[in-house]
Amino acid sequence: MPFPVRLAGCAALLVALGSTACSPIKTHQGYVIDQELVNSVQPGVDTRDSVMQTLGRPTLTSQFNQGEWYYVSRDSRNYGFSDPKVREQTTIRVRFDAAGNVAAVDKMDKELIASVDTYGKTTPTLGRKRSFFSDLFGNIGTVGAPGAGAPGGGAGQ
């Protein structure tokens, strides 16, 4: 094979590999929303059992009572090794009254997503700061010391 044809083939292969590396990776997480099923849930008519049969098990429930169910759907995409960016998020909130009947059905978009940024590479904690060497050599002399427990891990042997 002549050199220019081989060079053109290698260049075409590199362009093909490079273009596939730049294509976005699209992902879907959570609940798959069927708008007809969501619209069929009516306040004052449906109960917890009928919502469970219609929409299925919720993505999350409220922490302090059984008054709210959340169905979360998120579409995101990223390029290569970058962090995923949320393209669309929809949250369906079903609120129940004390008797277990549906009080309201709300739809929320991605504008209500809370952005929580990390604090550096480590989490600040209370207490004394330990170095690498104190972690490595800190237990020397404590084996078998009073108050350290019985040898072999058993108490009172």
Short précis:
The protein is an alpha+beta fold.
Instruction: Give the CATH architecture of the domain at 23-113.
Output: 2-Layer Sandwich
Poorly predicted segments? none
Estimated helix fraction? 10-25%
Order of helices and strands: HEHHEEEEH
Just give the CATH class of the domain at 23-113: Alpha Beta
Q: Which secondary-structure class do the elements indicate?
A: alpha+beta
What's the total count of β strands?
5
Main sheet summary: 5 strands, antiparallel
Report the average pLDDT across residues.
78
Keywords: Cell outer membrane, Membrane, Signal
Protein name: Outer membrane protein assembly factor BamE
Organism: Sphingomonas agrestis
Signal peptide: 1-21
Descriptive overview:
The chain is of the alpha+beta class and 157 residues long. The chain has a domain at 23-113: 2-Layer Sandwich (Beta-lactamase Inhibitory Protein, Chain:B, domain 1). Helices cover 25% and strands 25% of the residues. The protein contains four helices and five strands. The protein has helices spanning 3-21, 35-40, 48-55, 132-137; strands at residues 24-30, 60-61, 68-79, 85-96, 102-108. The model has no long low-confidence stretch (mean pLDDT 78).
